[in-house]
UniProtKB/TrEMBL annotation:
GO terms for molecular function: hydrolase activity, hydrolyzing O-glycosyl compounds. InterPro entries: Beta-gal/glucu_dom_sf, Galactose-bd-like_sf, GH, GH2_Domain-Containing, Glyco_hydro_2_cat, Glyco_hydro_2_N, Ig-like_fold, Ig-like_GH2. It comes from Clathrospora elynae. This is Glycoside hydrolase. SUPFAM superfamilies: (Trans)glycosidases (SSF51445), beta-Galactosidase/glucuronidase domain (SSF49303), Galactose-binding domain-like (SSF49785). Belongs to the glycosyl hydrolase 2 family. Residues 236-320 form the Glycoside hydrolase family 2 immunoglobulin-like beta-sandwich domain. One of its GO terms (biological process) is carbohydrate metabolic process. Residues 1-20 form the signal peptide. Residues 118-229 form the Glycosyl hydrolases family 2 sugar binding domain.
C-alpha cells in the first residue's frame, strides 16, 4: 500500500483560486466578541482556558525550535456546499471561534448544531528571522474533522481528508514578503448524515441512545507554523526494543536517500550514549548498550536528536518489546518477554466543554493521573485519536495504549452494516492511524473493529487482510482485529465484551467456533490471547450539578446502582469475578467501562465534569493489584512487574 506521509503539497492540475497578493487584504482579527458558549456542564477548567488555548509545543516526537502557535480567536462562517467555489477572500467573517475547539463545543464559542460546511479565517505574520532563503514555512494541523481545504493569500494551498490525522501544508510560496497573511480553511464534515459512512467513532448527528454523543466538526487540534530548511525531515518512524536495538526510518520531504546523524542521549544529560549514521528513506538498525527498559512501572524515555543537513530535530523513545508467547500452556501478551496483564479503562476522550478537545493539557493529563493513581497500567483509546501530547503523557506516565481505529457509522439505514463503498477509505485511514502513532513507546495494540460497527457481515472477512496490512506497517505491536461480537479468528486476541458478567479466556459460556457465522461467537480460542475488551459499565444517577442531562431519565448505564456505595459493591464483585478468571482460566487483560461519564452515559470512574470520583480508590487499588498478583502467579513470578 502506498503511504501518505500527511504532507500535502501544491494542487497540481486543480482549478486555481489564485488571486493576486495585492487583492487579498487580510482584515484585522480581534477576539473581543468571543465568549464561551452555553454548556449544560462545565469543568473546573472551562473558565480558565482564556483565548490562548493549548499553548504547549504540540509535536513532542519531532521538535524544532522555530515555531508559532496559531490557536486563538479566529473568524467563522456557517455556509453551504457551493461556497467553496467562491471563497470569502478578504472579507470579514461574522462570528468568532476559538481554535482548537470544535464547532459544537461551548469553548469554541460557536456551540453550533449541523455545522456541515464552514469557513474559518485568521491572519498571521511570519517572523522575519524565518524568511532567509533556503527556508520553508510549514502550516501544521493536529486534526480537522472531516475535510479541510486550505487557502493562503487567495491561493489554494492544500487539502486533507480524515478527521483524526495530523497534516502539514508547505505554504512558503504563498507568503507575502511583508505583513499579514490571510489564512482561510474550508471544512466539510457530514458525520453520519443521510447515508454517509466515514470514520466517526461515537459522533452522531441523529442517534440519541446513550452510547452516541455530540459530534465534533472542524478544527479540533492545535494549528501552528514552523520554520524548516527547504530540505528537511518530514517524518521519523522509530521503535526501540528490549535488546537496545533501534529501528529508525527518517523520511525527508524530497524522498531523498541522503545521510543523517542520529544521537541517543544519556539520561538527564546532553551527552551522547550512541551516535550513528543512517540514510533517509530506508530502515536503519543500530544498537544502544544496556538501555534502561520502558515499563509501566519504570517509563524511562531517552532523548534523541537527528541532524539531516541543516535540519535538527529533537525526539525521544523508550526501549521495550511487545510480543505474544505461550507461558504455562496459555497464550499471553508479553512486555519485555514477560507476561504483562494489561488492565485499563475504556477511554472515550470526551469533555462537556470541549467535546473532542480537553480544555487544556492539564485537564487531559488529569484523567490519566486519576487512572494511574489506582494502578491501571493501560487505556483503551476508544474509537478516537488524541493529540500527540496525550500519547506523550502515556509514554511519560507509563500507560500502555490499546488504540482503536475510529469506527464507521454502525448502520446505514436499510443497507446493512457496511456500505462496501466505504471500505477503501476506512482502510486508507487505518493506515494513516498506524503511521501516525506507531512510534510512541506506549502503543501496545491496535484495534481494527469494535462490536461489528462498520464491519462486513459476510465473507470475505475484511479483518484478515487489514490485520496483515497493520502488521506490515507495524510488526512490533499486537492486533485486536475484532473487539467484541463477530470474531472469525483473525490476529492476536479473542476479545469478548460482557458487561454484567465478565467472560474472559473461559470456555464456560460459549465454545469458540470460527466457522460459526450465525451470531455473537464469543467463547475462548486457546490459540489466541483471551481479553475482556469491555466490562463494567455500571453507573449511578448523578446530581444535576455534575450531569450533562438535567433529567434523571436522560441518565443511563448498562446497570444502575442506587448510590456510590452500592456502585463500589458491584464493581468489587465484577473485579473479583475477573480475578477468578485469571486464576482459573486464560484471562490475560481487561478493559473497564469507563474513564468518565459521557453525556447521558453515567458509568464513569468519574463524573463527566471530573469532579466526583465514584471509585473507592482504596478498594480499586487493592483489587487491581490482586489482578496483577493473580496474573504473576499464573506465570510463577513472585512479584508483579
Ligand atoms: C472586533 O470585532 C467585532 C466584530 O467584527 C467588532 O464589532 C468590534 O468593533 C471589533 N473591536 C475592535 C476593538 O476592533
Ligand atoms: C448552519 O448550516 C447548516 C447547514 O449546513 C444549517 O442546518 C444550520 O441551520 C445553519 N445554522 C445557522 C445558524 O445558520
Ligand atoms: C524495521 O522497521 C521496518 C519498518 O517497520 C520493518 O519493515 C523492518 O522489518 C524492521 N527491521 C527489523 C530488523 O526489525
Ligand atoms: C530530554 O530533553 C529535555 C529538554 O532538553 C529535558 O528537559 C529532559 O530532562 C530530557 N530527558 C531526559 C530523560 O534526559
Ligand atoms: C508453575 O509451576 C507449576 C508447579 O511447579 C507448574 O506446574 C506450572 O507449569 C508452572 N507454570 C509456568 C507458567 O511456568
Ligand atoms: C448544586 O449547586 C448549587 C449552586 O452551587 C447549590 O446551591 C446546590 O446545593 C447544589 N446541589 C447539590 C445537590 O449539591
Ligand atoms: C473542581 O472544584 C471543586 C470545588 O473546588 C472540587 O470539589 C473538585 O474536586 C474539582 N475537580 C477537579 C477535577 O479538580
Ligand atoms: C473503601 O474500600 C476499603 C477497602 O475495601 C474499605 O475498607 C473502606 O471502608 C471503603 N470506603 C468506603 C467509604 O466505602
Amino acid at each position: 500500500m502506498r503511504l501518505s506521509l500527511g504532507i500535502v503539497t501544491g494542487f497540481l492540475g486543480l482549478k486555481s483560486f489564485a488571486a493576486s497578493e495585492n487583492t487579498v487584504k487580510p482584515r484585522q482579527i480581534n477576539g473581543t466578541d468571543y465568549k464561551v458558549g452555553f454548556t449544560p456542564l462545565k469543568t473546573n477548567w472551562t473558565d480558565t482556558v482564556g483565548t490562548s488555548p493549548w499553548p504547549e509545543y504540540p509535536r513532542p516526537r519531532m521538535q524544532r525550535p522555530k515555531w508559532k502557535n496559531l490557536n486563538g480567536v479566529w473568524r467563522y462562517r456557517n455556509t453551504t456546499d457551493s461556497s467553496l467555489e467562491s471563497p470569502p477572500f478578504g472579507q470579514a467573517l461574522e462570528k468568532p471561534v476559538l481554535v482548537p475547539f470544535c464547532l459544537e463545543s461551548a469553548l469554541s464559542g460557536v456551540t453550533g448544531k449541523n455545522r456541515i460546511w464552514s469557513w474559518y479565517q485568521t491572519s498571521f505574520d511570519v517572523p522575519s528571522s524565518w524568511k532567509a532563503s533556503g527556508n520553508s514555512v510549514l502550516l501544521n494541523f493536529g486534526a480537522v474533522d472531516y475535510e479541510a481545504t486550505i487557502f493562503v493569500n487567495g491561493h489554494k494551498a492544500g487539502f486533507h481528508r480524515g478527521g483524526y490525522f495530523e497534516f502539514s501544508v508547505d505554504v512558503t510560496s504563498y507568503l507575502k514578503a511583508n505583513g499579514a497573511n490571510e489564512l482561510l480553511v474550508y471544512t466539510f464534515d457530514p458525520t453520519d448524515m443521510d447515508k454517509v459512512q466515514i470514520p466517526i467513532g461515537k459522533q452522531s448527528l441523529w442517534r440519541s441512545d446513550m452510547i452516541w454523543y455530540t459530534p465534533c466538526s472542524g478544527i479540533w487540534q492545535t494549528v501552528w507554523l514552523e520554520s524548516t530548511p527547504t530540505e528537511h525531515i518530514a517524518k521519523i518512524d522509530l521503535v526501540a526494543d528490549m535488546h537496545g536495538q533501534v529501528n529508525v526510518t527518517v523520511h525527508s520531504n524530497s524522498n531523498s536517500n541522503i545521510a543523517y546523524e542520529i544521537t541517543v542521549h544519556e539520561l538527564n544529560s546532553d551527552d551522547a550514549k550512541k551516535i550513528a549514521n543512517g540514510i533517509t528513506g530506508t530502515p536503519f538498525i543500530f544498537t544502544v548498550d544496556s538501555p534502561q527498559l520502558w515499563t509501566p512501572d519504570t517509563p524511562t524515555l531517552y532523548n534523541i536528536s537527528i541532524r539531516y543537513g541543516s535540519d535538527i530535530v529533537q525526539s525521544y523513545t523508550g526501549f521495550r518489546t511487545v510480543s505474544r508467547g505461550v507461558i504455562g500452556n496459555v497464550q499471553r501478551p508479553l512486555l519485555n518477554g514477560e507476561f504483562v496483564f494489561p488492565f485499563g479503562t475504556l477511554d472515550q476522550g470526551y469533555w462537556p466543554d470541549g467535546i473532542y478537545t480537553a480544555p487544556s493539557v492539564e485537564a487531559m493529563s488529569y484523567d490519566l493521573k486519576v487512572l494511574k493513581n489506582v494502578g491501571y497500567n493501560m487505556v483503551r483509546k476508544h474509537v478516537k485519536v488524541e493529540p500527540a501530547l496525550y500519547y506523550r503523557a502515556c509514554d511519560e506516565m507509563g500507560i500502555l495504549v490499546i488504540q482503536d481505529m475510529p469506527s464507521l457509522r454502525p448502520q446505514v439505514d436499510g443497507v446493512g452494516q457496511l456500505d462496501p463503498a466505504a471500505q477503501p477509505e476506512f482502510n486508507r485511514q487505518l493506515a494513516l492511524l498506524v503511521e501516525q502513532l506507531k512510534s510512541y513507546p506506549s502503543i501496545f495494540a491496535w484495534t481494527i473493529y469494535n462490536e461489528e460497527w462498520g464491519q462486513a457481515t459476510s465473507p470475505p472477512w475484511p479483518e484478515f487482510g487489514l490485520s496483515d496490512m497493520v502488521r506490515s506497517l507495524d510488526p512490533t505491536r499486537l492486533i485486536n482485529a475484532v473487539s467484541g461480537w463477530w470474531d472469525h479468528g483473525a490476529a492476536d486476541f479473542m476479545d469478548n465484551h460482557h458487561y454484567t458478567t465478565p467472560q474472559c479466556g473461559t470456555p464456560l459460556w460459549y465454545n469458540y467456533d470460527p466457522a460459526d457465522t450465525s451470531g455473537h461467537n464469543a467463547g475462548y480460542d486457546p490459540s489466541r490471547i483471551g481479553l475482556q475488551g469491555e466490562f463494567g459499565g455500571i453507573g449511578t444517577k448523578v446530581d444535576f450539578n455534575h450531569s450533562w442531562y438535567k433529567t434523571l431519565d436522560g441518565q443511563s448505564a448498562y446497570k444502575l446502582a442506587d448510590d456510590i456505595l452500592h456502585w463500589n459493591y458491584l464493581a468489587g464483585n465484577l473485579l473479583t469475578q475477573l480475578r477468578e478468571q485469571v486464576e482459573e482460566f486464560a484471562c490475560s487483560g481487561g478493559v473497564w467501562t469507563q474513564t468518565t461519564d459521557v453525556e447521558g452515559e453515567v458509568n464513569g470512574m468519574m463524573t463527566y465534569d471530573r469532579s466526583i470520583i465514584r471509585m473507592n480508590t482504596t478498594m480499586f487499588k487493592d483489587e487491581i493489584q490482586a489482578l496483577y498478583a493473580a496474573a504473576a502467579k499464573r506465570a510463577n513470578k513472585t512479584e508483579t512487574e
